[in-house]
Amino acid sequence: MVHVVVADDKNDRTKIFTHSGEFKFDIKLDRPFDVAVSQTSNLYITPRDDGCVKVYSTRGQQVTTMGRGTLEGPRGITLNNQGHVMVCDSRKKSIFTFHADSEQLLNTIPLSMCENPRYITVNGVNDNIVISDNCQHCVHVLSTTGDQLYQYGTEGSGYGELNGPCGVCTDSYGHIFIADCNNDRVVALSPRGQFIRYIATEDDGLESPRALAISPAGMLMVAEADGKVKKCQYLQ
């Protein structure tokens, strides 16, 4: 069973670890940006410089490629509550949704409100789509049809401010977590986008958080820019 998967773009690898941190194997792939894991444990990886999504089995064997000819700058990737693959394309400023099995393009959501859309997640509680924009220093929250519900963040380091936000994820309660990369902290929001607290900061030894995920054990996994992955107990 796959536990922790890390896209290591500087080393051109996607690395797989057990939940306890034991290295299992890696997949050689030029500049992987993000990775999502399906219910069947397939790995969906977005290479930064290749206009597609590459799909691998839990043993590291390539299964298929999707989105070629449609995608130009795939960045963040996630699976929605129906198991469809959603890709944030920073060059086309759109979200493309593909059927996980047939690879058919199901719909496209334009991101005209974004300057540089990066990471994406879907809130399992309300199906809202969460997109980070690290040039506008904010997170956009959209409905399933792409209508903007609200925006969180402006450039800065104070409350309600972000600086170069990267990874986003949600938990089973609908809380939203943001990797506030250049502020060296992880921000927690309510399902409606109200600030709750900082989960970890520079004072806790956090440095340049890039990607986030919630583990099966309910821990917040934080991948830093330098390659470290840290576990945070966030529920109080």
UniProtKB/TrEMBL annotation:
<feature type="repeat" description="NHL">
    <location>
        <begin position="149"/>
        <end position="192"/>
    </location>
</feature>
<dbReference type="InterPro" id="IPR001258">
    <property type="entry name" value="NHL_repeat"/>
</dbReference>
<dbReference type="GO" id="GO:0061630">
    <property type="term" value="F:ubiquitin protein ligase activity"/>
</dbReference>
<protein>
    <submittedName>
        <fullName>Tripartite motif-containing protein 3-like</fullName>
    </submittedName>
</protein>
<keyword id="KW-0677">Repeat</keyword>
<dbReference type="InterPro" id="IPR011042">
    <property type="entry name" value="6-blade_b-propeller_TolB-like"/>
</dbReference>
<feature type="repeat" description="NHL">
    <location>
        <begin position="60"/>
        <end position="101"/>
    </location>
</feature>
<dbReference type="GO" id="GO:0000209">
    <property type="term" value="P:protein polyubiquitination"/>
</dbReference>
<dbReference type="GO" id="GO:0043161">
    <property type="term" value="P:proteasome-mediated ubiquitin-dependent protein catabolic process"/>
</dbReference>
<dbReference type="InterPro" id="IPR050952">
    <property type="entry name" value="TRIM-NHL_E3_ligases"/>
</dbReference>
